[in-house]
C-alpha cells in the first residue's frame, strides 16, 4: 500500500553524526519537525536550528517551500537563517583580515537563499556592504601592494554578496548614493582590474541602469560607451557578455535623441569590427547568454532606423530632392551638362528623365514619388546614397550595365534597392520590441498554474533564456518534422494499421475479462460479477462471484451468456438505464463517469460500473469495435498519438547498413546476489 501523500521519506545530516532516515509529516509545523530532529541528536534550543537542502544550493526549508521536498531528498540540520545572519553581520566587521575574508566568502554563498537574505537585510546588511565598498576599500588599498590577492578576494566576495542580495528584489535600487555608484564605475573604468570584481561591477551597473531613470542618469555621468569597449577586446566571454549587457541597458534607458548619438559613437569606435573579431570569430563557442545580448544589441541598433523607415519623402522638400540629384550626379558626372541657351531647360528635363530611367526609378519624371511608400520610406534612399558614395565604382558599373540590358534581363538599381530595403526591414524586424522572450517566459510560467507567487518566481527562474531557446528549438523541430506534407501523408497511410492494433488490444483485454462490483440502487455492495469475451469474439460470458477473483475466471464457471449478434447498442453515463433509477440520483459524479450499459433484445440490458477510468475506456472501446463503430475514448486518442509518433520516428530512422535482428535480444541472467539493493526501510 503506498504511503500517504503527506508523508515524505528523507535523510537528514548533522556534522559528526550518522545521517538519520526519517518520515516527515507535511501536516506538522516545521518547527515541530526541527524539534524532533534536534531531540534525536540531543540538541537544545531547537529554535536556533533549521533544515536546508544538502545539495549545492543549500537553500533553507521554509513553510512556503516545504512542499517541494520529495521522497529521497537529503536535508541538513544547520543554524537558523536568523542566527547565521547575526553571526555573519558581526564577523564581516572583524578587525582580522583573515576572519573578515572568510566571513565575506560565507556571506556570498548564503546570500543566494532568499530566507537568509531577508534576515541579513533586516539587520541593515546592504548598507553595511555599501559602506565597505565606499570607504573600506580606500583603507584596504593601502595594503594592496603587500596583500593584493587578499584585497581582490575580499572586494570580490563583498560585491558578489551585494549582487545576490539585490537579486531577490527586497531592496530598491534607488536607495544608493552617488559615492557608491562612482566607486562601482571606477572598478569598470580601470584598465587593470580583477576579473571577478569587474564582472560583478558590470552586473551592478546594468541593474542600476535598468531599474530607474535617475539611476541611469547617474551611471551615464560616470561611465561612457568608449570606456566599455576595451572590455570587449579581452578573452573572457563572461566579461564581454556583461559589457554588452551594460551597453544594451544604456541604449534602452537613453532618451531618443541620445540613442542616435550613442550609435554614432559605437560606429566611430568600430564596435562592429571589435565584436566580429573578438567575439564572433574568437576560437570558442558563443554561449546562449552572449547570443541573447548580441541579439538585443542588434535589435536596438536596427530600431534606430525605424524613424527613417516610416518617413515618406516630401516631393516638395528641396533637401530630400538634392539626394536624388546627388545619385544622378555620381552616376552620370562624366556627361556634359547643357548650356543655359535657348531651350536648355527642356533639354535638361529630358536628360534628367532619361537618367532617372537608367537609375531604375519607376517614376522617371519625379523619382521622389518612389519613396512615398512606408516601409521602406526614406531609409531606402539613405541606403542608395551610402552605396553610391562609399562604393562609387560598383554603383556606377551597376547603373551603366543595367541601362544597356534588355528589359527582360534588367535589374533596375532604384526599384531593386527599394524592394531590398523593404525585405531586409521585414527579415531583421526593424521596429519590433525586445520583449518576446520575456512575454514567453511569463506565458509559459502561467500555464503551469502556480499556486503562489513564490512558485511563479521559481518557474520564471527555471525558464531562463537558454531554456526558452531549447523549448523553441524542440517545438520548431517537432512542428517542422510532423507538420510537413510528406509526414502528414505518411500519418494518413499508417493510421489504419495503428487503429487496428489498438482494436486488437482492446478485444484481447475483453477476452481476459474484468471483475465488476454490483451496484445496488441504495448503496455499493461488496458483491462481484465477472464478464469476459469468448476467444472467437462471438459471445459474452458473465456471472456472479462470491469474492474478488485472483486472476482470470474460466468460461465454464460463468453461468450466463450474451451473443454479440444480439447487442443493439452501447450507452454510457446518464443514458444508462441503471443511472436513471431513483437511487441513481444519489450517485456521485465518479460513478456516473464509469457507467455503461449493453442494450439487447427489446427491453433487456446488462449494466456495468467500471472499476476505474482505464477499464471503462477498454470496455467501451472494445464493445464499439465489436459493433463495427469507432473507438472514441480518450485512451484511444492518446494511444493513437503515441503509437503514430513512435512509428513515424522509427520509419524516419536512417537504418542503412544496419542489420535488424529477427528475434529480440535475450534477457540477461539474474545477478548472483542482490547486495547492491538498498532498502531505505
List keywords for this structure.
about 675 residues, alpha+beta, 4-stranded mixed sheet, 4-stranded antiparallel sheet, flat
Low-confidence stretches: 338-342
Provide the β-strand percentage band. 5-15%
Portion in helices: 40-55%
The rounded Rg comes to 38 Å
Arithmetic mean pLDDT: 84
Shape: flat
Number of helices: 27
State the end-to-end distance.
14 Å
Overall SS class: alpha+beta
How many strand segments? 11
Give the strand line-up of the largest sheet: 2-1-4-3
Q: For the report, how would you describe the main beta sheet?
A: 4 strands, mixed
GO molecular function: guanyl-nucleotide exchange factor activity; SH3 domain binding
Keywords: Apoptosis, Cytoplasm, Membrane, Phagocytosis, Phosphoprotein, SH3-binding
Domain ELMO: 319-499
Pfam families: ELMO_ARM, ELMO_CED12, PH_12
Task: Describe the protein.
The protein is an alpha+beta fold. The two termini are 14 Å apart. About 1% of the residues have low confidence. It is 53% helix and 10% strand. GO terms for molecular function: guanyl-nucleotide exchange factor activity; SH3 domain binding. This is Engulfment and cell motility 1. One of its GO terms (cellular component) is guanyl-nucleotide exchange factor complex.
Amino acid at each position: 500500500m503506498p504511503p500517504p501523500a503527506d508523508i515524505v521519506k528523507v535523510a537528514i545530516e548533522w556534522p559528526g553524526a550518522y545521517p538519520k532516515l526519517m518520515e516527515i509529516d507535511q501536516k506538522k509545523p516545521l518547527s515541530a519537525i526541527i524539534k524532533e530532529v534536534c531531540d534525536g541528536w540531543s540538541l537544545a534550543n531547537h529554535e536556533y536550528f533549521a533544515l536546508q537542502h544538502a545539495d549545492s544550493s543549500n537553500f533553507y526549508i521554509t513553510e512556503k517551500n516545504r512542499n517541494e521536498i520529495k521522497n529521497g531528498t537529503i536535508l541538513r540540520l544547520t543554524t537558523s537563517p536568523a542566527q547565521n545572519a547575526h553571526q555573519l553581520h558581526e564577523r564581516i566587521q572583524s578587525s582580522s583580515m583573515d576572519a573578515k575574508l572568510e566571513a565575506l566568502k560565507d556571506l556570498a554563498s548564503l546570500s543566494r537563499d532568499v530566507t537568509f537574505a531577508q534576515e541579513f537585510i533586516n539587520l541593515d546588511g546592504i548598507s553595511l556592504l555599501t559602506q565597505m565598498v565606499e570607504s573600506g576599500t580606500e583603507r584596504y588599498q593601502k595594503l594592496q601592494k603587500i596583500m593584493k590577492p587578499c584585497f581582490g578576494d575580499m572586494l570580490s566576495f563583498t560585491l558578489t554578496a551585494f549582487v545576490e542580495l539585490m537579486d531577490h528584489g527586497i531592496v530598491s535600487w534607488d536607495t544608493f548614493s552617488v559615492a557608491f555608484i562612482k566607486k562601482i564605475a571606477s572598478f569598470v573604468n580601470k584598465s587593470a582590474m580583477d576579473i571577478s570584481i569587474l564582472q560583478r561591477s558590470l552586473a551592478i551597473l546594468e541593474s542600476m541602469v535598468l531599474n530607474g531613470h535617475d539611476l541611469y542618469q547617474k551611471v551615464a555621468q560616470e561611465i561612457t560607451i568608449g570606456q566599455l569597449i576595451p572590455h570587449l577586446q579581452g578573452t573572457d566571454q563572461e566579461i564581454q557578455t556583461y559589457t554588452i549587457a551594460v551597453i544594451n541597458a544604456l541604449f534602452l534607458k537613453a532618451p531618443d535623441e541620445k540613442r542616435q548619438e550613442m550609435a554614432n559613437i559605437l560606429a566611430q569606435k568600430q564596435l562592429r569590427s571589435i565584436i566580429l573579431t573578438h567575439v564572433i570569430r574568437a576560437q570558442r563557442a558563443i554561449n546562449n547568454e552572449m547570443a541573447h545580448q548580441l541579439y538585443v544589441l542588434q535589435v536596438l541598433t536596427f530600431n534606430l532606423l525605424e524613424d527613417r523607415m516610416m518617413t515618406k519623402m516630401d516631393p516638395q522638400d528641396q533637401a530630400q530632392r538634392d539626394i536624388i540629384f546627388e545619385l544622378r550626379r555620381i552616376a552620370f558626372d562624366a556627361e556634359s551638362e547643357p548650356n543655359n541657351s535657348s531651350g536648355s531647360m527642356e533639354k535638361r528635363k529630358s536628360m534628367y528623365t532619361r537618367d532617372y530611367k537608367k537609375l531604375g526609378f519607376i517614376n522617371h519624371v519625379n523619382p521622389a514619388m518612389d519613396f512615398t511608400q512606408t516601409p521602406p520610406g526614406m531609409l531606402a534612399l539613405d541606403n542608395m546614397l551610402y552605396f553610391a558614395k562609399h562604393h562609387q565604382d560598383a554603383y556606377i558599373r551597376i547603373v551603366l550595365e543595367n541601362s544597356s540590358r534588355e528589359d527582360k534581363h534588367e535589374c533596375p538599381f532604384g526599384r531593386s534597392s527599394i524592394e531590398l530595403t523593404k525585405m531586409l526591414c521585414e527579415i531583421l524586424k526593424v521596429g519590433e520590441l525586445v520583449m518576446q522572450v520575456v512575454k514567453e517566459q511569463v506565458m509559459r510560467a502561467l500555464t503551469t498554474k502556480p499556486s503562489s507567487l513564490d512558485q511563479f518566481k521559481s518557474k520564471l527562474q527555471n525558464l531562463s533564456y537558454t531554456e526558452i531557446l531549447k523549448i523553441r528549438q524542440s517545438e520548431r523541430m517537432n512542428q517542422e518534422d510532423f507538420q510537413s506534407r510528406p509526414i502528414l501523408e505518411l500519418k494518413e497511410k499508417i493510421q489504419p494499421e495503428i487503429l487496428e492494433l489498438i482494436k486488437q488490444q482492446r478485444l484481447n483485454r475483453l477476452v481476459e475479462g474484468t471483475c465488476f462490483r454490483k451496484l445496488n440502487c441504495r448503496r455499493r455492495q461488496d458483491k462481484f460479477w465477472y464478464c469476459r469475451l469468448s476467444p472467437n469474439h462471438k459471445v459474452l460470458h458473465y456471472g456472479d462471484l462470491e469474492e474478488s477473483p485472483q486472476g482470470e475466471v474460466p468460461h465454464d464457471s460463468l453461468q450466463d451468456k450474451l451473443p454479440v449478434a444480439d447487442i443493439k447498442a452501447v450507452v454510457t453515463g446518464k443514458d444508462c438505464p441503471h443511472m436513471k433509477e431513483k437511487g441513481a440520483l444519489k450517485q456521485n459524479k465518479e460513478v456516473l463517469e464509469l457507467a455503461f450499459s449493453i442494450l439487447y433484445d427489446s427491453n433487456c440490458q446488462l449494466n456495468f460500473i467500471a472499476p476505474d477510468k482505464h477499464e471503462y475506456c477498454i470496455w467501451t472501446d472494445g464493445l464499439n469495435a465489436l459493433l463495427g463503430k469507432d473507438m472514441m475514448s480518450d485512451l484511444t486518442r492518446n494511444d493513437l498519438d503515441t503509437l503514430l509518433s513512435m512509428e513515424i520516428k522509427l520509419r524516419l530512422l536512417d537504418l542503412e547498413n544496419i542489420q535488424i535482428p529477427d528475434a529480440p535480444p535475450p534477457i540477461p541472467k539474474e545477478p548472483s546476489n542482490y547486495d547492491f539493493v538498498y532498502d531505505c526501510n
